[in-house]
Amino acid sequence: MIRTAALAHVRDRRLIQTRPEGKDVFYMAGGKIDPGETPLQALHREIEEELGVGLSGVAELGIFEAEAFGHGKNTPLHMTCYLADFTGEPVATGEIAEFRYFTVSEYAAMDQVAPGSMLVFRRLHELDLIDW
């Protein structure tokens, strides 16, 4: 099982997704939880590493479980997802090639989508936080 912490940052009714260097698929911003770390600690560390910003107004959205995209068949993903705002303007740093904001349908129309991300997109749409 892969345990991750992820950010559900919404801007203009769209959800941010990040594309790592060398990959074609966009994922939730965030990453793996290191041994001894809480999901919240991992979230803060990963967002600083990936987008060069801090977080404010952090609130847990929920836990999402799906197949981990790109990790072989039957590898489960356990993703603790948080809503939050940025303390500054994000920039793609280090391992992140780019980030974009998507509606549900824009993300779903991509050639490849991460199942965990789709669960978050659907949940945010149910909450009327992002557009279809």
Please outline the helices and strands.
Elements: E1 2-8, E2 10-11, E3 14-20, E4 29-32, H1 39-51, E5 55-67, E6 76-86, E7 96-102, H2 104-108, H3 115-126
Parallel strand pairs: 1-6
Antiparallel strand pairs: 1-4, 2-3, 3-7, 5-6
Number of strands: 7
Instruction: Describe the main β-sheet briefly.
Output: 4 strands, mixed
How is the quaternary structure best described? single chain
Report low-confidence residues grouped into runs of 5 or more. Answer: none
Indicate the radius of gyration in whole angstroms: 13 Å
Residue fraction in strands: 35-45%
Shape: globular
The number of distinct structural domains comes to 1
What would you say the CATH architecture is? Answer: Alpha-Beta Complex
CATH class: Alpha Beta
CATH topology: Nucleoside Triphosphate Pyrophosphohydrolase
The total of helices stands at 3
Strand order of the largest sheet: 4-1-6-5
Fourth-tier CATH superfamily name: Nucleoside Triphosphate Pyrophosphohydrolase
Distance between the termini: 30 Å
Structural class: alpha+beta
Key terms:
single chain; four-stranded mixed β-sheet; Nucleoside Triphosphate Pyrophosphohydrolase; alpha+beta; three-stranded antiparallel β-sheet; 132 residues; 3 helices
Write structural notes for this entry.
The protein is of the alpha+beta class and 132 residues long. The protein has a single domain (2-126), classed as Nucleoside Triphosphate Pyrophosphohydrolase. The protein has helices spanning 39-51, 104-108, 115-126; strands at residues 2-8, 10-11, 14-20, 29-32, 55-67, 76-86, 96-102. A four-stranded mixed beta sheet has the order 4-1-6-5, with helices on both faces. The protein has a three-stranded antiparallel beta sheet with strand order 2-3-7. A hairpin with a 2-residue loop joins strand 2 and strand 3. The longest helix is centred in the middle third of the chain and has 13 residues, at 39-51. The mean pLDDT is 95.
